[in-house]
């Protein structure tokens, strides 16, 4: 009997729809499974609960994924203990429910709380214990904590210990550490993930493992291989780092009229070679010159040279004079402060204000945005930089930004294979491309996303190639995705995987195949399992 191609496709669609419909029905079994355990019912939310929308939206940090069209979870669970998380994973596996794990909701593509298939959110907001051991220079940090909470707890105990994580205090440590996690001390101490010494994790079989019991392969993979892939990390043990009692910060703004192009061009040659105590990044954005008080409304570009030096002004000024005199840094441009005050400075808070603002999980502002990332091996010529600036004069670039973060120092010393994060020696700096907007609607979103895609296309000749590298914590689904409603081949996954992980991708695949062969923990850019491919006859 012959079956037409149309009929075959129709049958596939019907079968697929039926299977996803059945999965959606499984959430009742999932809730029933939880109720048979000691799971606290007050920590289980369905759309029938009046508090469901507020629980869901509280940790949504990108308005692109807070629309009426955005797929919503069937259930949100906010466990308060490791045993409750364990029960959630066991019940999800038993009932076939797809799980997304959310820490603080900063995934750039919303993957911690959005899925195209029926799903459950495990929200770790209640797992936020932080225990700092000053004598051991270490801390255990539960995965629902934010890096702001971590910084606050360290500062409570010591003025001369810190940690090399990011500048945004509302970012959750779970996702941040899982993707590598970088901040303004990366040239001195590397990434957050470079300073992780142990972890507690629930695997796909519901077992709670530490470094000793999970083995070195899995411990390697979770430090930079991306979240929601190898298991659910409950807590991290981190190695704290020494910071001086006094650090120095400065921010110098230079417009095009103040030689910004030549300064940015020169920065590329000197910033990666500075002393490791010195970090100067550049934030590029559009500026109306009327903001400077000259009465005109001429548009220009401003490059903000934003810096921290792990030491005092007297030591900084000679280094700047020797290595980057063109910037014209003066003593009066610099501010000496404690390390924790510098955390406030980079987060945009008053440095003399109360430190407890670092405990807030609410961002200063939540907007629509799209981001991309690049790595630069060779300095971009002045003409290339001027081409970037032209994009900033387009209407969609009103709230856009390009951030250049220098590498070198400790980053050059750590092997690309030490952890899954491979971007080490040879990288002059990383670029984060960002575009924000405030208006609702698909057409507005498409215009802004189109703008950043065009900028990204323009950048191709100036950045890394074969592969064009990217940073997984600046998640970008444009560079490739898995089939969330079916198996993903090695070849398909490698399209995006090699960009994030380069030569480490293959090892990540083998670890995944070993620890989660059924691909229980998955998302649009999680490492897939070889076992599934073999089962499909590949």
Automatic annotation (TrEMBL):
Keywords: Alkaloid metabolism, FAD, Flavoprotein, Glycoprotein, Signal. Belongs to the oxygen-dependent FAD-linked oxidoreductase family. Gene3D superfamilies: 3.30.465.10, 3.40.462.20, Uridine Diphospho-n-acetylenolpyruvylglucosamine Reductase, domain 2. Its cofactor is FAD. Residues 1-24 form the signal peptide. It comes from Solanum tuberosum. InterPro entries: BBE (IPR012951), FAD-bd_PCMH (IPR016166), FAD-bd_PCMH-like_sf (IPR036318), FAD-bd_PCMH_sub1 (IPR016167), FAD-bd_PCMH_sub2 (IPR016169), Oxid_FAD_bind_N (IPR006094). Residues 69-243 form the FAD-binding PCMH-type domain. Involved in the biosynthesis of pyridine alkaloid natural products, leading mainly to the production of anabasine, anatabine, nicotine and nornicotine, effective deterrents against herbivores with antiparasitic and pesticide properties (neurotoxins); nornicotine serves as the precursor in the synthesis of the carcinogen compound N'-nitrosonornicotine (NNN). Catalyzes a late oxidation step subsequent to the pyridine ring condensation reaction in the biosynthesis of alkaloids. It comes from the Eukaryota. This is FAD-binding PCMH-type domain-containing protein. The keyword Transmembrane does not apply. Pathway: Alkaloid biosynthesis; nicotine biosynthesis.
């Amino acid at each position: 009997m012959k079956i037409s191609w149309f009929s075959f496709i129709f049958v596939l669609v019907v079968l697929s729809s039926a299977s996803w419909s059945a999965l959606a029905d499984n959430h009742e079994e999932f809730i029933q499974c939880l109720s048979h355990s000691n799971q606290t019912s007050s920590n289980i939310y369905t759309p029938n609960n009046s508090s469901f929308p507020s629980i869901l939206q509280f940790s949504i940090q990108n308005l692109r994924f807070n629309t009426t069209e955005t797929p919503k979870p069937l259930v949100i669970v906010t466990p308060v203990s490791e045993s409750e998380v364990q029960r959630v994973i066991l019940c999800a596996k038993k009932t076939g429910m797809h799980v997304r794990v959310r820490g603080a909701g900063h995934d750039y593509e919303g993957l911690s709380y959005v899925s195209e298939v029926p799903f459950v959110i495990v929200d770790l907001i209640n797992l936020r214990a932080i225990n700092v051991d000053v004598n051991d220079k270490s801390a255990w940090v539960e995965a629902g904590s934010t890096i702001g909470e971590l910084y606050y707890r360290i500062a409570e105990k010591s003025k001369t210990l810190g940690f090399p994580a990011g500048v945004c205090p509302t970012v959750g440590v779970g996702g941040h550490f899982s993707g590598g996690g970088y901040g303004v001390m990366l040239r001195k101490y590397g990434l957050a993930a470079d300073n992780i010494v142990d972890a507690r994790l629930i695997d796909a079989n519901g077992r709670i493992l530490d470094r000793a019991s999970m083995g070195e392969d899995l411990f390697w993979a979770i430090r930079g291989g991306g979240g929601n892939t190898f298991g659910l990390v409950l807590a991290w043990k981190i190695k704290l780092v020494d910071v001086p009692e006094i650090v120095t910060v400065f921010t110098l703004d230079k417009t095009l009229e103040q030689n910004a192009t030549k300064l940015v061009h020169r920065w590329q040659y000197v910033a990666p070679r500075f002393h490791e105590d010195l970090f100067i990044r550049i934030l590029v954005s559009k500026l109306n010159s009327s903001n400077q008080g000259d009465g005109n409304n001429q548009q220009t570009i401003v490059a903000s040279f934003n810096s921290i030096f792990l030491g005092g002004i007297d030591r900084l000024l000679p280094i700047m004079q020797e290595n980057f005199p063109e910037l014209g840094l003066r003593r009066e441009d610099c501010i000496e402060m404690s390390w924790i005050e510098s955390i406030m400075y980079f987060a945009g808070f008053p440095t003399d204000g109360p430190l407890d603002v670092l405990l807030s999980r609410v961002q200063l502002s939540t907007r629509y945005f799209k981001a991309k990332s690049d790595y630069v091996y060779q300095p971009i010529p002045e003409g290339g930089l001027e081409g970037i600036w032209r994009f900033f004069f387009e209407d969609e670039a009103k709230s856009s930004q390009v951030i250049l973060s220098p590498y070198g120092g400790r980053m050059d010393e750590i092997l690309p294979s030490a952890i899954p994060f491979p971007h080490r020696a040879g990288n002059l700096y990383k670029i984060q491309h960002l575009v924000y907007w405030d208006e609702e609607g698909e057409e507005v979103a498409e215009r802004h996303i189109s703008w950043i895609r065009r900028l990204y296309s323009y950048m191709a000749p100036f950045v890394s190639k074969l592969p064009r590298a990217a940073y997984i914590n600046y998640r970008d689904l444009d560079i490739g995705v898995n089939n969330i409603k079916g198996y993903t081949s090695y070849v398909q996954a490698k399209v995006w995987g090699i960009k994030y992980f380069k030569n480490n991708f293959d090892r990540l695949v083998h670890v995944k195949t070993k620890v989660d062969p059924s691909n229980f923990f998955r998302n649009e850019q999680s490492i897939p399992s070889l076992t599934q491919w073999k089962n499909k006859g590949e």
